Amino acid sequence: MKKSVLALALLASGTLAISSISAQDSSQLPGIVDVSRVQSGTYALDPKHTLVSWRINHFGFNDYIGLFGDISGTMELDPANVEDASFNVTIPIADVTVASEDLREHLLRPGKDGADPDFFGPDPQAATFVSTNVRQTGDTSAIVSGMLTMNGESNPVTMAVDFTGAGTNPMSKAETVGFEARAQIDRTQWGLTTFSPLVGNNVELEISAAFERQ
């Protein structure tokens, strides 16, 4: 019994020590979740550190994951009036990253014998998202609605957005604000119907974004 009590005490003290170290490490990071650090103004996306990942079910066997990078865009933000914020984001479809080169070629290849391509084709236009409404749901969270234009079609999309940090980037010296967002879209609304519904219609999107104040 004494050994058990001693083991629990050691475990508890170790947990407290780890928590203390983690708290110290977090406080030393350039960016922290502190709304008071967010400055009003115009922000531009940091394309080197902003990603959109997508996940889709493949024939019911497993999910496949891909990425878009080199994303550009702007944000207007006043922390005193979060619901007045606006976003305008451009995603280069042709820069899609997947683990299989064969799949990447399929996503971007032209249709056979003059037919429409299975997916985006060799010269896809960039996708754009323009916000139409921001609704604050908590001190560090919001619902952002807007129009996503992709593959020649425009449809509404709603994202759950969390504020993840603010501060001065030690490399660029720019005042930076970070967000993570989640959304789900039905790909068939944008004309991407190939292999539907054997390859899932619902595509899960996860966005990790860093905006630098201009």
TrEMBL record:
Domain of life of the native organism: Bacteria
Q: What is one Pfam family matched by this protein?
A: YceI
Gene3D superfamilies named among the record's database cross-references: Lipid/polyisoprenoid-binding, YceI-like (2.40.128.110)
Q: Which UniProt keywords apply?
A: Signal
Which region is the signal sequence? Answer: 1-23
Q: Ranges for the Lipid/polyisoprenoid-binding YceI-like domain?
A: 42-212
Cross-referenced SMART domains: YceI
User: What is this protein identified as?
Assistant: Polyisoprenoid-binding protein YceI
Q: Which species expresses this protein natively?
A: Altererythrobacter xiamenensis
